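Narrative of accomplishments. A recurring question from our advisory board has been how the design workflow behaves on a single, concrete structure rather than in aggregate. To address it, we present the structure tokens for one chain from the evaluation set, followed by the sequence designed for it. No filtering or post-editing was applied between the two.
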């Protein structure tokens, strides 16, 4: 998924989007004004090995402050096309401020999970949510996989586990903004309860409700609530 948008700004499907600021490409978590819940102490999130649909395996764990180099390496291995789909604008590199914000997360209002290749320890995918400042029950979501790991179901696995963390944090729905030609996102959402919330020039907005799963089938890598 590329970028994400606040549900308060969502429009009826088929309604043209209002012009956006030239800075709109920046993820919301790089903008000021994000606040957490008073007194919240996030619980630890366990790591876990996951088998993908092609039988390859990844280790999914929470992002850590020391992961800046890992995230930068993953970004460097994205094709120009993948970067365009992720940020909806050409992007050559991540700044030090972006890397710091992408890795210094509180695991409650801002959660991020990274997938590692057990063979070499390099990052192959990452997914994150950021709680909306105006709606504590909604969060923006984004997911990215390096090109040679796309098409294996990695994005779906990351979002499944991220959804578990979001439910634990009291989030009821995700919102996402993707390029209208992002067929990977469209396929990933095809079998979910996601709905079209609106569109803009070259983009589509989605809302994805998070239905609480049976307690006995909660994803093991999602972590305790």
């Amino acid at each position: 998924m590329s970028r994400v948008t606040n549900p308060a700004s969502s429009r009826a499907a088929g309604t043209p989007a209002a012009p956006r600021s030239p800075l709109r490409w920046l993820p919301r978590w790089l903008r000021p004004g994000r606040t957490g819940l008073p007194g919240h102490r996030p619980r630890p999130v366990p790591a876990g090995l996951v088998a993908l649909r092609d039988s390859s395996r990844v280790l999914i764990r929470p992002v850590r402050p020391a992961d800046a180099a890992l995230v930068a390496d993953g970004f460097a291995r994205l094709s120009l096309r993948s970067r365009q789909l992720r940020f909806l604008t050409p992007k050559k590199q991540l700044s030090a401020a972006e890397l710091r914000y992408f890795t210094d997360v509180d695991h409650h209002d801002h959660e991020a999970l990274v997938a590692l290749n057990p063979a070499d320890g390099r990052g192959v995918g990452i997914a994150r949510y950021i709680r909306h400042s105006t709606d504590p029950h909604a969060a923006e979501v984004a997911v990215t996989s390096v090109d040679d790991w796309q098409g294996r179901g990695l994005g779906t696995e990351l979002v499944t586990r991220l959804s578990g963390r979001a439910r634990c944090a009291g989030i009821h729905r995700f919102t996402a903004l993707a390029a209208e030609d992002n067929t990977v996102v469209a396929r990933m959402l095809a079998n979910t309860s996601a709905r079209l919330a609106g569109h803009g020039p070259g983009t589509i907005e989605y809302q994805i409700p998070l239905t609480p799963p049976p307690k006995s089938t909660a994803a093991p890598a999602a972590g305790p609530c």
